[in-house]
Queue: 4 jobs
Job 1
Amino acid sequence: MDGEYDVVVLGTGLTECIISGLMSVNQKKVLHLDRNQYYGGESASLPLDQLYEKFRTGIKPPESFGRSRDYNIDLIPKFLMATGKLVKILRLTGVTRYNMKFLLIDGSYVYRKGKVYKVPATAMEVATTSLLGMFEKRYVKNLLTYVHNYDVNDPKTHENMDLTKVTMGEVYKKYGVSGDSIDFLGHSVALHPTDDYLNKPALDTVNRLKLYADSLAQYGKSPYVYPEYGLGELPQVFARLCAVYGGTYMLEKPVARIVYDDEGKVCGVESQGEVAKCKAVVGDPSYFTEKVRKVGQTIRVICILNHPVASCDNNKSFQLIIPQNQVGRKHDIYVCGTSFVHKSAPEGKYIAIVSTTVETNNPEAEVKVGLDLLNPILDRFVYVLDNYEPIEDGSKDNVFISKSYDASTHFESCADDVVSIYERLTGEKFDWSRAPPEQAEE
């Protein structure tokens, strides 16, 4: 560990692993440390024994659940948008060459008035869905046609609206879209976690609607893809990328302290009596308790099932969004499911995770509506985590801290955080057009 590095990265969450991979490809000398014995941090996928050890120390899983190694259970529920930023990062870094296999998620669903509906994925489904009434379908169709045609550089497509000033609420009103249709579009398609977006400039929501449509068009069945063997594969492929280009990884390395010079800039990291000198440090919030602020909590309930979820058409995988208005909340509730098809569980077993932003002193009660849709549940693990964000941007001390993973079931906010950290760390704009690096010898 002793030596001099351009950057020391703390924690092997996905954000940190992508940064270390990018920096290593840029020919920077990288040291990557993690206190855990496994890759992924909060974005890890654990075998059954490790999951029980994490949540119920000393207790072994029932033998009836099958072999531990046949499980790869995510600690956070996330899918990838098929044309989203994370998929683009996977391609431009070249990690897709590392034999990663992605599977399409079977369907996207939304909860309305006590029932679960499939989010329409084709023109035929839009025409026949009972999710929207006859007039609603026409209004929604007209709005989505406008969104499809919208080009920020072509004023002819703007229909006299400046989307950097006009709110999304005003756009809905212009097209006659209201009530449940707004719930459906804003939360199941644009994937907003709250209704705050209604009073904000519409451009972000229009881009979100376009992203969903583009991702859906990629494969036709749903806009989401998921890596075989779980999300833990993602940080591992970026760790491999970093190592291929000369980066050094060390697990089970607790950090004693961050070392600063007389000007207050970071100059090293101490672990087990050794100091690695460095010019910058990147890490997750757990390594910098004095440099982050708490911005809320997220509850996640990991459930093991021996049956598919009936309300989601018995699919082997799904995403279900329960819009906040439907259950009298401020934040959406998310339910996502995978199964033995994705190697997240053995034959006949299914994994479902329910998550939301905590609003009360009884978080588990807040997700009851989602859990009830999964019954019967073989076992469940309740996971309440504080959410943090950095107090400063890192320009003063060269310490760049990631944000906690939010409750949403997609990686767009994580990708935004990666780009932000990269740009602050390097002082360069992130190049989305960069070609994948040449294959390096392993």
Job 2
Amino acid sequence: MSILQILLFPFAVVYQWITSFRNWLYENGYKQHVSFPLPVISVGNLTVGGTGKTPHVEYLIRLLKDHKQLATLSRGYGRQTTGFIIADKQASAATIGDEPMQFYQKFSSQIKVTVGEKRVPAVEQLLRKYPQIELILLDDAFQHRAIKPAYSILLSDYHRPFYKDFVLPAGRLRESRQGAKRADVIIVSKCPADIRTAERETIITQIRKYSQTETPVYFTSIDYGQPVPYHPSAVFNAKVLLVSGLANSAPLEQYVRSHYQLVHHLDFNDHHTYTRQDIVHMQKNLEQYGADVILTTEKDYVKLMQAPFADLVEPLPFYFLPIEVRFLFGEEDAFYKNLWQAITHKKTNY
């Protein structure tokens, strides 16, 4: 531990006691879980941000959309609205948040995309409006104990594993490491594609100190696609100005640096709300560093392209870098089998 972490440790003890007591209330029936007559899949983490929830939710959408009537429910971080909203053609990152907007742009013809900070009434409103929905993907909801999921997926970043972290404010954990016991499956995300079997076993051993013994542990990596241009006729050139608003941009920067000529990285905070000044700053950096293109993430792209300052964005050479999740060690079939068994098991309430 660093000196700062040692100084913050007493506050972390208090925070851990509060979160542990809250979990104890749920686990002993003093606070009630709500179940629904359809399966809810929860995707979340123990840490604050940066474990790859969005690409994993997209993976689940692709996996299940042809088999079930799907809806996603997110809190909608960074939006300028409150309450329950069903995404429609008027939706934007400002009204529903960047990640839900990304879901909507990709899958609006196949699923319902919704946001609501109060998850229980949001699910109730969703089912009243669309009773045909058969499955809900609950985004960033591992600590949301009010809904009892049929299947709980816990993500842990390979670069920042929860078993090496500490509770806020001494570390980045939202609750103690023992929270991993609630997971039905644990996915170690953002792994290098060439991770070795011996390292895999070491990581599983560390996770097993906090999870249930029988909980499956899988490993995924991120596959990057070819840059997609704002202007379809554009030609991707060598020198790249990278723009991102992520909790942990290091893996992205490493990839871009190894595949393109990265001249500068404008690294904003996670869920950054872009302004006209930011765009002017990008334009100046484009000229200052002699960059040919501006490369950004997909979730940043949806915000930039819908911003009220689109007149500034439109002439700039913007591209976004698409990503998808890939299971390692041939584990995709095992993951799907466990997931499908959980969501098709006949229950009155899940």
Job 3
Amino acid sequence: MTTAADEHVLLRTEGRAGYITLNRPKALNALTHDMVRALDEALALWEKDPAVETVVIAGAGDRGLCAGGDIRAIHDDARTGGTASADFWRDEYRLNALIAHYPKPYVALMDGIVMGGGVGVSAHGSVRVVTERSRVAMPETGIGFVPDVGGTYLLALAPGGLGTHLALTGAAVGAADALLCGLADHFVPSGRLPALAAELAHAPVHDVLARHVRPAPPGLLDGQRAWIDPCYAAGSVEEIVARLRARDEPAAQEAAATLLAKSPTSLKVTLTALRRARELGPLERVLEQEYRVSCAALSSPDLVEGIRAQVVDKDRDPKWSPARLADVEAEDVARFFTPVPGRELRLAGPGAPQEVPW
């Protein structure tokens, strides 16, 4: 019997490669729990298969690799106080850790839209390919959520204030800026991706890349670091906004306006999560923090309201609570990082990303 996972995650092997296609093109290949389980099972199987030397992941359709998780399902679960989202994140974050330490080349074709959970199944891979069509983002603050799937780990490692800028604004970046921020490794023109993928069935990754990698077109962020770095070095979101508004650059003014439209609680929790991620060490510790934060967000009014405004009703007019940065207290932020017995994620170290007991 064919299951939803069979339809939504297409698997095949050819020559020396195993190919994964995320196959929900009408939903921009958004991840469901069944899809996460299917990915985990395929990677575990291919890890032990000596015939599979390289894994390649791509998205069906021509719009992108993956737009993230199924946030409408998260909205419905949060409204009813369910546990489906927490269960989904538990398996998704385990998958992110597995990908990060996969012992075989894991080639992610990050063409088109790559956001949220799409970053989680690609940017932790060992070979990350972007194209001129790539739009890479962690847009969670716009729906009352916080970057997850190891996003706070990746963005905390970006140069200067770039990661903080992307995490707080949710801005999508193109190929050159994804490379600059450490979210990707190689630029390949989109028209060459079919040949690149096909050749991986017959040749080692480094040989194939050498034939297809090209210089990326110029990006934007490197030329904006004169205002990004000093503004986002501030100790609070309020001070970041004040510094941005004090700059003369139009892009800085736009960034300030963008921040003021996001969930104030999400902004403050995101900044704290990023700063803490820098001190936590390996990816596993950061994923554990993200799980705690994500589960806490389920009981925050901003998550339901943000998804309602952006995805359900699409009025693009969320009513955040609290509505102002000044009204988000320190204890409101601390709640997201407080351990909850019986609802914690613990991951083993590199090479063994399965869950371990407390």
Job 4
Amino acid sequence: MTAEEPSLSGIRLRCPRCRTDIGGWDCPACGFSIVINDDIARALPPESIAHYARFVDDYERIRESEGRGSESAAFYLGLPYRDTSGRHRGQWRIRARSYDYLARHLLDGAGRGNRILDLGAGNGWMSFRLALAGYRPCAVDLLANDSDGLGAARHYRTRLPALFPRFQAEIRRLPFADEQFDAAVFNASFHYAEDYEASLREAMRCLKKGGVVIISDTPWYSRQESGEQMLADRRAAFRRSHGMAADSIATLGFLTDERLGRMEDALSIHWDVHRPWYGLTWAMRPLVAKCRGRREPSRFRLYVARKSAGS
């Protein structure tokens, strides 16, 4: 494929390996090239591919065993409002309510035409919805497969004048030059970070002055111990199902107020916390768990921080 085929919509690039701003797909400083394959810009340096190889393999295996993805285009076109597979309707209801709140209250349509980074885009459903609403999204994910990764975004071509740009890239080493996006959304993905501060700092780097970073659908716990128990339960379940541990990458897995506070101090930001209504059953989960002597369940909020003029 030629370098012109993916629509970059004026996005300026930066080498993810040596961090040099580049005018095309090739870095003159270190020789790294962003390769276009299946209309996806592959911006993972070899060392990153090696680092994430087992994590990607484990993650894809988990998602396949959970029945993610579909052979039907209708499945992708209906997300997040309809899960035509019927396998994860509860999760998609949460995603839909988070997205609606984000679109109505945090983006609010005032900046239609704004450029938005969709970090952890998966199959691209959020970028699709944002593009339909008039925004200019750019989808980023480690996964590029055709069922649950960036390759699945091919199903949106029939509904959009041009498909949004897609980059297979590491969130800590984004292939974008400084200060060109109006918002960056961690789309049910921030908890997969190995280093919260580094990931957040990289997203902030790509934002214009006054731009916002939004963390959506990452589990929050009031106690560190609850989050650690959740991760232990998840590892045990994977071992039972697959006969091996899924711990090749030490992802942080969840948020607490203490973790959020450390990010505020390190980056000199302020989190605005938003609490969408996910329904009475969801709201009652902590009380039910306490009455039954179970571990504290996760809760979801939306966290918003603005890049100041002096950042």
